[in-house]
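Recall the central idea of this unit: under ordinary conditions, the amino acid sequence of a chain determines the structure it adopts. In this exercise we apply that idea directly, starting from the sequence alone.
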Amino acid sequence: MGKSGRPRLFKFIISPEFGERVDHRRLTRELFARIEQDLGARLEWVAVTHHNTDHPHTHVALRGVRADGQELR
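Accordingly, the structure predicted from this sequence is:
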């Protein structure tokens, strides 16, 4: 838990080169599936992709608690 006693929140920005040619939804899902596989745990996350800039990119917020309730470190 963070200093406030609340779970941590991890923030990511996925900004691939040539982002206008990438399926951001698929890329993000595949990336986080791989992270879950590597950690051996299901994770809770949300994402939003911006296409209104010169460089399309995706923001991801990852809850600092595994699906089983254990703190993610």
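The radius of gyration is 14 Å.
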